[in-house]
Amino acid sequence: MKKLIAVVIATVFVISTAYAAPTGKPIGGSKHDFSTGYVGAEGTYTAVNKCNTCHAPHKAKRNSPLWRLNNPDANVTWTMWNGSNTGQALTSGLNNGYISVQDFTASSSGLCMGCHDGATAMNDTSGVKMRAAYNGNWGRDLKASHPVAKVVVFGIDGWQANLPQGNSASLSNVELETGGSVGCTSCHSMHSSDSARPMLQRKGEMCMSCHDK
Predict the structure, then answer these.
(1) What is the tens place of the pLDDT at every residue in 50-74?
(2) Read out DSSP for 40-54?
(3) Which residues of 115-140 are buried (b: 16+ CB within 10 A; e: fewer)?
(4) At residue 16, does pLDDT exceed 90?
């Protein structure tokens, strides 16, 4: 009987842990809460609830994470940081250590850029786009930002041996995106950010998860 009780308790613990609420900042009242309305470039968009700007419980464009929006346009120029004034234009294949433009726009970064490129409608039916003057409108020229879409070169001088080791050392929860590339969600998370930090940043010393300096 005692063994049965112990098994039941352990099962309840595992289930409750698996379905634990996200620990990041709540969407309600944040800049991503459009249930109170958002004035964009083409008008005002108001969501039905706090989640449905990004997610759709039915007929989602992607089953995971039940994503409502189309991917941003891959058939335009996307330019990333590469240490030069010209930047690195993404192409249709792996190029100079950068993933393809198709993989980038379909990645987790693409989910973010579906609004933050300032050109893709924030909701497929509203047609409202992010205001050009808003500081969250990054556009498609990202050469002045931390390099995204670039494959992380772990194991060489100045870099961690791997991400698990880096996360352990930095007490962080940094993630990589498609093809082992760094992306928006490597350092930012809508649902597992550090609730005490701004800009939906992840936990710990994020830079040290990849860079061994």
Answers:
(1) 999 999 999 999 888 999 988 999 9
(2) ETTEEE--SSSSTTT
(3) bbbbbbbbbeebebbbeeeeeebbeb
(4) no
Which two structure tokens, joined as six digits, stand for 173? 């929860």
Please state the pTM of the whole predicted model. 0.86
Q: What tokens appear for 77 in the block?
A: 């120029």
Spatial distance between the Cα atoms of 79 and 189, rounded to a whole number of angstroms: 23
Q: Is the dihedral of CA 79, 207, 112, 65 positive or negative?
A: positive
Alpha-carbon distance of 203 to 186, in angstroms, equals 11
Across 14-18, 30-34, 86-90, which has the greatest mean pLDDT?
86-90
Q: Backbone phi, then psi, for 3, in 5-degree steps? A: -65, -40
Q: Tell me the C-alpha distance between 138 and 119, whole Å.
A: 10
SS3 state of residue 169: helix
Q: How far apart are CA 173 and CA 188, in angstroms?
A: 10
DSSP 188: B
Instruction: Let me know: does 153 contact 98? Beta carbons within 8 Å.
Output: no
Q: Using an 8 Å Cβ cutoff, are 151 and 100 in contact? A: no
Which residues, at least 6 apart from 116, have a Cβ–Cβ distance to it below 8 Å?
130, 136, 137, 138
pLDDT at position 3 is 53
| Helices within 19-118 (DSSP H only) | 101-105, 108-116
Q: In angstroms, rounded to a whole number, what is the distance separating the alpha carbons of residues 61 and 41?
A: 24
